[in-house]
Design goal:
Helix content: over 70%
CATH architecture of the largest domain: Orthogonal Bundle
Number of strands: 0
CATH class of the largest domain: Mainly Alpha
Number of domains: 2
Order of helices and strands: HHHHHHHHH
Distance between the termini: 43 Å
Structural class: mainly alpha
């Protein structure tokens, strides 16, 4: 499946409401969008599924706004980015709640393994913009220009987010005993 296929399917959805074309796009991108959210949410599978579902609903409802100026995946990741940050902003109201304590009381656990805990902890030390840029670059194989479009910021800012994020993660992981 190529970018040409993506454009053709997106056009069929936008012009004719073709559900089978949207199914093809969903099948192609659902794993990568969910993985993007799994990393942003530090392994919260339930939240990742909800965010991915909301992303595809918004993509379906707004398909007519896809102009093909950027690749379909860039457009879709931009929607995913906005969905995530809308959720983060709405949850700021609950920032004072000790989620670790609530998890312990209710015995909830995230879906990630102990081997990933240090990486997730290092990622959690980053600003949300740095996390997003790092994850898009290293986990989703997006280029700097694609990330700039997804995050709606200048190319130099994306490079700075990645550089600063890597530096902060390096310090944390070195202090945690890695790389010695």
């Amino acid at each position: 499946m190529s970018k040409t296929d993506d454009f053709r399917w997106a056009t069929q959805v936008a012009l004719f409401g073709d559900k089978s074309a949207f199914d093809k796009l969903t099948c192609k991108y659902q794993s990568s969008i969910r993985r993007f959210f799994m990393n942003l949410t530090m392994g919260d599978g339930s939240l990742s599924d909800d965010l991915a579902q909301e992303t595809f609903i918004k993509a379906w409802l707004n398909m007519a706004s896809f102009k093909g100026l950027a690749g379909f995946s860039t457009w879709l990741y931009r929607i995913a980015y906005n969905v995530y940050y809308d959720t983060v902003r709405s949850r700021k109201l609950y920032a004072d709640i000790d989620t670790g304590e609530i998890d312990q009381i209710h015995q909830t656990q995230n879906d990630y393994s102990p081997e990933k805990a240090d990486i997730y902890t290092a990622l959690a030390k980053l600003r949300k913009e740095e996390q997003t840029a790092i994850l898009l670059f290293y986990m989703e194989d997006k280029t700097h220009p694609e990330i700039a479009k997804i995050m709606n910021c200048p190319l130099g800012t994306v490079k700075t987010y990645i550089l600063k994020g890597k530096e902060k993660m390096n310090v944390y992981l070195t202090n945690a005993g890695y790389g010695k």
